[in-house]
Amino acid sequence: MHAAVGRLALTAWVAGLGLAGAFPFERRGGQGQKPVPDDYYVSLGPRPYYLIQNMTDGPLKSKLESCENGPFEVTSWSIGHRGGGTLQIPEETVQSTLAGARMGAGILECDVSFTKDRGLVCRHDVCDLHTTTDILLRPELAAKCTRPFTPANATHAASALCCTSDITTEEFTSLCSKMDGFNATATTAEDFQHGVPFFRTELYDTCGQVMTLDSYIELVDSLPGHRNFTPELKTPPAAVPMPFHGYTQAQYARDMIDTFIAHGISPARVYPQSFTPADVYLWLNEYPAWGAQAVFLDEDGDDPANFTTAVNRLPALKASGVNIISPPINYLLAVGGPDNKTVVPSDYAIVAKQAGLEIISWSFERSGPLTRVLADDDYYYSSVAPIMHYDGQMYEVLDVLGRQIGVKAMFSDWSATVTYYANCFGLKGPGH
Ligand SMILES: *[C@@H]1O[C@H](CO)[C@@H](O)[C@H](O)[C@H]1NC(C)=O
Ligand SMILES: *[C@@H]1O[C@H](CO)[C@@H](O)[C@H](O)[C@H]1NC(C)=O
Ligand SMILES: *[C@@H]1O[C@H](CO)[C@@H](O)[C@H](O)[C@H]1NC(C)=O
Ligand SMILES: *[C@@H]1O[C@H](CO)[C@@H](O)[C@H](O)[C@H]1NC(C)=O
Ligand SMILES: *[C@@H]1O[C@H](CO)[C@@H](O)[C@H](O)[C@H]1NC(C)=O
């Protein structure tokens, strides 16, 4: 209420003086860009303040505290991972996307999978419907799953395998989304629905609205403020061998881009991602304007024995036409400093920068409390886990990524955390 009154008064004052063009907080338009209307507010909630309050005193904490009252703007430095409300709200849904958008994410993600009739839909894995939707509670659809629900017994965990390719697009759009998780000891399909990690919640498991690629594009394009897209082409697991009844990975890669073209979306607004190099090179060759912004997702250094190879490959990737490399945050971070107790840029980060690659990284807010990352063998903080002890360190880590390494954007399961930081340091995202 207080802030709203202030903004209105300020707007009237600026308009009255005829200074709108010079005012630093003015929402700028520009080619293909939609300014944020004066009556739309980015809303960050209490979490960034909780994290800052838990920081060790110092210049970073002081700077972040100085930004407590904003102004907070939509920024493409903040990417809504699986929507952006994923920490609490079922992923890849209208509700998670709206949450990420409200928390200021300027780029919103849809992971792209295909259905039996080759429709493109938003789902993180081609075969995760048994853990992210209510399909097992829908007998007529559950019967179509690649592997039906099998109850737990003394020797085997409960299991199922339901793929988007098992059902038609129309059937897919009838599903309800829920938080990703399952109960390995379940003896009934009802009990199998539960089992989300303790730091997430089932509070919003109230029939999250699934999206097709078409409906996602329409939703994101309709949001207030200038928003960009990051669709990730998923490579199906072994259970869905490609080509799928004649549908090739190459055609699937083309269909994803063609869907944006059909909606009249400019390639400047789209960051197509893939872990599969052939997808990225297809876009570079056949859709150069789209390939120029393609995001090459890298997990080839997961095995410590392969990490140096992944680092040494970076210059060749750049030379082959890749502009944006996207490793998980653990690849970019190392323990170092004079005390060997400081988070520093890794060799991967240094070599990627030297090679002239832009870096987008993933994913913030997927790990729960930092007190537990070492004991829980968390993936994202694995390279710095021995020195992670309290949640305030999240912003220290983000600052190494943001200002020391200079990543161009950050995926987050809770967009507010990243949006707050980006606004405080004036980070605008890729292309800036
Ligand atoms: C941060 O939280 C931890 C508990 O997780 C606490 O021990 C520590 O004192 C807090 N630090 C500050 C500066 O509030
Ligand atoms: C336990 O379940 C597995 C499959 O999940 C099955 O192969 C096995 O026969 C079952 N064991 C018993 C004792 O029913
Ligand atoms: C998991 O399933 C078992 C067996 O059906 C049930 O007893 C238990 O309550 C379930 N746990 C949760 C968290 O739903
Ligand atoms: C490591 O690299 C080798 C050689 O490229 C490959 O065969 C192996 O699968 C890789 N390991 C992992 C875990 O990716
Ligand atoms: C620094 O700490 C890391 C992780 O705690 C450890 O792996 C590394 O060996 C240490 N390096 C030195 C020079 O002590």
UniProtKB/TrEMBL annotation:
Keyword ATP-binding: no
Keyword Ubl conjugation: no
Enzyme Commission code: 3.1.4.46
Catalytic activity field: a sn-glycero-3-phosphodiester + H2O = an alcohol + sn-glycerol 3-phosphate + H(+)
Signal sequence, renumbered to the chain: 1-22
One example GO MF annotation: glycerophosphodiester phosphodiesterase activity
InterPro entries: GP_PDE_dom, PLC-like_Pdiesterase_TIM-brl
Domain (GP-PDE): residue spans on this chain: 76-405
Example GO BP: glycerol metabolic process
UniProt keyword list: Glycerol metabolism, Hydrolase, Signal
UniProt record similarity statement: Belongs to the glycerophosphoryl diester phosphodiesterase family.
Protein's name in the database: glycerophosphodiester phosphodiesterase
Organism: Capronia epimyces CBS 606.96
Classification of source organism: Eukaryota, Fungi, Dikarya, Ascomycota, Pezizomycotina
